[in-house]
Amino acid sequence: MAPQFSGQMAAAGLTMIAAYVLIFGELIHRTSAALIGAVVMIGVGMIGGFYGQAEAVMAIDANTLFLLAGMMMLVVLLRPTGGFDYLAIRIAKWSRGNPRLLLVYLALAVSLISMFLDNVTTVLIFAPLTVLITRILSLNPLPFLMAEAMLSNIGGAATLVGDPPNIMIGSAGGIEFTRFLVHMAPLVVVSWAVTVVLILLLFRRELAPSGPGAQIDLDERRAIKHPLRLRRGLIALGVAIVLFFVHHRLHLFPAYVAFIAVALALVLLRPDPESLFGKLEWSVLVFFAGLFVIVGGVEASGLLDWVGFRLARLAQDPQTLLLTCLALMWVAALLSAVVDNIPFTVTMIPIVLGLEQQGVNITPLWWALAIGVGLGGNGSHIGATANVICVAESERSGIPEARITPLGWLRVGIPVMLVGLVVASAVFVLLFDFYRG
To answer: How far apart are CA 289 and CA 78, in angstroms?
Structure first.
């Protein structure tokens, strides 16, 4: 039975819009706006009878929050050793001081790593490293941080383990790792290449070489301050990386993997707990908790189901299957730019599976959904977890011109998202028989 638009949906939608106006307008800090929005959403839900305190607690994605917290701890423990400084000097030397070459190197590194590790973990490691590199080269870190977040989102869309929605889609559709990679590769590679070119054009002034290339006279070997602590910290990080590759086979949550590494680091490094916990980005964690509660209210109201059902009705006619795939791709992207892509994916999966029982070929819908939620995260600074991490790092850098504002992100993120969607749509149309089979 088709869900009907209701007052509950309207109330939840308006509450989310009001919270996002506060976040994007920077009328108050984004964490405060998310907390206020969460409190109001619970109140509206209790009055409307569709969302309560218990549902709000359940809506908070503890796996994501603990993954963030665990990887933040590892980064905090490794930073004083000088390991990041060593790597920063090496990368700066490889780029020969050329800003454009440096951006391409960093973009390629985060994209490839995000294919096999969670893109959140990748950005948590690379964001502080990028600030160090740009300090060495006297560059503004803003374009580099934004490029890393956006291209880690695109890279993560290529594999089953690169992004949580991919794992859900693969599980629901019975898609194995190799098949997922083969089908997503054309969409991701073309979108990645076009995005890199577009970012280089949009930031052409910031990335213009000021001379023949800086001579980096620093000795990276002298950057390492505590070699023994660095080796021990890298052991813990290495354990996390290995387990991230196989966590789905061992049925381990990514957050649990992160805390296995943290527990090992605590044994090996014996840090002062007060100092360790005092350096975590608590405002980022609280911000995400608030967003999860807000989006949970929207989901509980039935608004996402209403959108998903109307989109899925197009697919009942085999003649409109291609149109449905493209519509799903674009709707998934646009919604993922403003709400977390996980609840939308969760909502769409049973709808897509239901279409299969009506004789619809749902295979191409999986690929459209996967690339849509992957590209959509680039649209806004809250569209993906990696984005928020890079925004927080830009603020923590203490460089005024490096601060990434919501409107500043939109000026770059919206063109990047739209161009990526146009290119992905063109590839999808050209290779539709391949994706349909």
So the answer is: 26
